Every structure is written in C-alpha cells, then in structure tokens.
Amino acid sequence: MRKQVQAVIFDMDGIIFDSERLVIECWEVVAAKHNIPDIVEICMRVQGNNREETGKRFREKYGKEFPYETYKKEVTSLFLERYGEGRLPLKPGVIEILKELKHQHVPLALASSTRSDIVRQELDDAHLLPYFDAVLGGDMVSRSKPEPDIFLAAAAALQAEPKCCYVLEDSHNGIRAAYRAGMHPVMVPDMQQPTEEIRGIAEAVVENLLAALEYLQAKM
Predict the structure, then answer these.
(1) Terminal CA-to-CA distance of the chain, rounded, Å?
(2) 167 alpha-carbon distance from chain centroid
(3) Cα 142–144–146 angle (5° rounding)?
(4) What span, in angstroms and rounded, lies between the C-alpha atoms of 138 and 24?
(5) Residue 202 and residue 178: Cα distance in Å, rounded?
(6) In the chain, N or C terminus with fewer CB closer than 10 Å?
(7) For the chain, percent helix, then strand, then coil, each to nearest 5?
(8) Residue 189: what pLDDT?
(9) What pLDDT, on the 0 to 100 scale, is given for residue 89?
(10) How far apart are CA 91 and CA 19, in angstroms?
C-alpha cells in the first residue's frame, strides 16, 4: 500500500463541506446590496483560488479600485452568522471515507485555498481535525491553485512522494494544481462539472466520496 498510495490529500470546500454554493449565496446577498453584477460568474471562476488571487481576479473584472476586501469581510460575516459554530453541512460520505482511510493507516492532509486559521476552525467545529495529519491553508504558500505549491507542501508535510499522492478535488483549479504537482487528481464534482480539459488531466472523475473511496481502495 505504501508504494501505490502513500497519502491522500483532500480539498475542503466542496469536498469536505457542502460550502461552495453557500459562499456564493452570501456573495449574492452582498452583491445585491452593493449593485455588483455577474457575481455568480466570477465566484465560479475563482473556485480553488486563495484570497489574494481571488481579489486580483475580482479587480480585473470590476476595476482596480474595487474594494474586494471590504465586501469579502461582509461575506465572511454573513457566512459565519449562518453557518458558523459547526453548522456547516458535510458532503455525503465524508465520515465514511475519513474513518476507512485512517483505519487503513493512510496519512491524510487537508490542502485548502481558504486561510489556514479558518480551515482549522471549521474542521475543529465539525470534529474532523483529528483525522488529518497535516492541515494547510492558502496563506501558507506563495502561489495559489492552479499552481501546485500547496499540494507539494502537503506531500512534504506527510513525507510522501508526490507521485504516490492521491488528491480529491472538486474545482478545475484544484485538479490543475494536483496534475502540475505530479500527483493523482481525482475529481469529485460539486458546482463545476469536468470539461474536456479536466477529463484529460484528471486520473478519474467519480460521483461522490464513497465512489472515491472505492477507487482508492482498488489502488491499494
């Protein structure tokens, strides 16, 4: 098992938590308040990006004076009001896949573009933090997904070879990052469906986390 599957690396939003659509709902509320057009389109485009890269993309779309950080604080406040303190819904199969992989003694990492303090807090609120041997946030690397930095850092933290790491991702940028890291990208679609490009670089596209577990078990 060590030779084929040395580690499994999870994205968080859209893989662990059913949160992508909830974040967009909060952005829609803030966008309506401030008359920001096309908010769903830009939110979909930046899925998988860290906060710095997302701000850059927002300013490219809305102008260099766009107060992204101000609006992001409003979104975060609304999101915490609605879903903080353990109210964030889990994706189906999360507990099952984490328990089984830990039972198989597979090292696990969480590699999210979300800021690391938020990542740890959300995992802790959901009582999931003990499952992970390493937890990395987007503020811990210099380049955002689709660059491979965060996945390479996760592999290093687990002392695993990138070529023997499997990555569970829902976003196009995440799949691109895992591919560029020389890992095994497995897409579990959430809001974004695989394009021809993504099908070409993902090792597999599976319906849900239970199917992902079956795929991983076959590789062990």
Answers:
(1) 5
(2) 10
(3) 135
(4) 19
(5) 9
(6) N
(7) 50, 10, 35
(8) 97
(9) 96
(10) 9
Q: Name the token pair of 127.
A: 């009582």
**Are 125 and 143 within one domain?**
yes
**What is the SS3 assignment for 135?**
strand
| Backbone angles phi and psi of 186, in degrees to 5 | -120, 115
The CATH code of the domain that includes 157 is: 3.40.50.1000
Query: At how many degrees (to 10) do helices 94-103 and 209-219 cross?
Result: 20
Q: Which domain holds residue 209?
A: 7-18+89-219
| Whole-number Å distance between alpha carbons of 150 and 11 | 10
Give the contacts of 97 (CB within 8 A, at least 6 positions apart). 209, 210, 212, 213
Asked whether the whole model's pTM tops 0.90, one would answer yes
Instruction: Give 21-69 as a 3 state SS string.
Output: HHHHHHHHHHHHHHCCCCHHHHHHHCCCCCHHHHHHHHHHHHCCCCCHH
Residue burial 87-110, b: 16+ Cβ < 10 Å; e: rest? ebeebebbeebbeebeeeebbbbb
pLDDT < 70 regions, the chain: 1-3
Q: Do 197 and 97 lie in a common domain? A: yes
Query: How high is the pLDDT of residue 3?
Result: 60
| C-alpha to C-alpha distance for 163 and 153, rounded to whole angstroms | 13
Kindly tell me the burial class for residue 41, based on how many C-beta atoms sit within 10 Å of its own C-beta (0-12, 13-18, 19 or more).
exposed
Show the tokens assigned to 200.
């070409």
Q: For residue 86, what are the contacts with CB-CB under 8 A and spacing of at least 6?
A: 125, 126, 127
